[in-house]
Amino acid sequence: MFKLPAPPSLDTLICEFDTVLRTLAASAQSVRPHPDRQVDEAELSAAEKRHAAGLMRVNHCGEVCAQALYQGQALTARDPAAREALREAAHEEVEHLAWTEQRIAELGSHKSLLNPLWYAGSLAIGVTAGLIGDKWNLGFLAETERQVGAHLQSHLQSLPELDAKSRAIVAQMYSDEMNHADKAVELGAAELPAPVKLLMQQSSRVMTSLSYRV
Question: N or C end of the chain: which has fewer CB within 10 A?
């Protein structure tokens, strides 16, 4: 029988609202050292800087979406282990936010102006995924991380050859995302149907295309 999770307490809702504000309005902080901390800045052309900044803006936007997704999924997860895995993934995504935010600034650009829109949509998707059930919730986490990993691999191919700082950040992000996917599988993630995966890919294309420019 389908059973809804217990509604969150007022304290929980306040904490979750604080997460929204910190993600959208505050500068993220990283516990781990930034992956590019020992990498020298290269001399990039104006076009290379714009392209690198666009890719890093896409990555930052992806991390904003991840925060919202995992927040929604954790709110509706039933299994404590699944909930903890989601919160652990979200914690590392905050570090990714910090890394990409700083790199965007170094490249002389700005974060996506559409982040509040992406956050709201991703939160709704996360809540829905959690309501369907934990194995599907974890399946959504695993597939999200795989698709993010594919984007990051494409960015490693597309980033300016001399931009070693951005490459160092993206490479560490890729490693973290794959670890999240593996953890979800270990906890019993279900394999999502092909139409759902395709819908996720199409939605991601829209987000990345707009975030690269805006």
Answer: N
Question: How much is the pTM?
Answer: 0.84
What does each of the 214 residues of the chain score in pLDDT, given as a tens digit?
445 555 656 555 566 655 665 676 667 788 889 999 999 999 999 999 999 999 999 999 988 888 888 888 878 877 787 777 777 777 777 889 999 999 999 999 999 999 998 888 888 888 887 788 888 888 888 888 899 899 999 999 999 999 999 999 999 999 998 988 888 888 888 898 899 889 888 888 888 889 998 8
Residue 104: CB partners within 8 Å, gap ≥ 6? 53, 56, 57, 60, 110, 111
Return the SS3 of 169. helix
